[in-house]
Amino acid sequence: MKEFQISTTVKECTYDELSASDRELVDKAKEATRGSYAPYSHFKVGAAILMADGSIVTGANQENAAYPSGLCAERTAAFYASSRHPGMEMRKIAIAAATALHKPEGLPEEEYFQNMPISPCGACRQALLEYENLYGDIEVILYGRDSIFIFPSIKSLLPFSFTEF
Ligand code: THU
Fold first, then answer.
1. Where does 11-157 sit in CATH, by number?
2. Domain segments of the chain: what residues?
3. Candidate list 74, 89, 109, 132, residue with the active-site label
4. Global model pTM greater than 0.90
5. Could you report the average pLDDT of every consecutive run of 10 residues in the chain (165 residues)?
6. Beta-bridge partner residues of 94
7. Which residue lies with its CA nearest to atom 6 of ligand 1?
């Protein structure tokens, strides 16, 4: 029996070490958390996608009383991006998550963002992979206050994916 390894090179940095354009994308993902509708989980997620024409499309998670009917921030953003700009390459996606809905008096907004990045769920990886396979690699920037992880592509987050039938 043979064995082989699957490996991914992940970059780790702080917000200050990002390029100005990546900081802007992360800022848009953080801003997008304000559009979250998360009365059940109280977990607000924002995603910002940099399109090939330089525009940025954002989305936030939307929950529902029938829980599985809700949608993650990443798919909200990606489906809107593809609807708004059919056939256009998605170059990068930044994702940020905040943990509380109510801000106690005096606590700065920044305190609500997660210290460590969150990573997109399997269904979002699968949905994003479809656009990546059509238009080219989508870099993934996962924001955390202490650390930011950068993955080179969606397929690096979803090896051995289902791609065709
Ligand atoms: N969620 C996202 O929007 N993106 C992720 O990457 C993980 C989870 C949402 C779904 C649900 O509204 C809430 O976060 C808690 O799972």
1. 3.40.140.10
2. 11-157
3. 74
4. yes
5. 94 98 98 93 95 98 98 98 97 92 62 89 97 97 97 96 78
6. 48, 141
7. 120
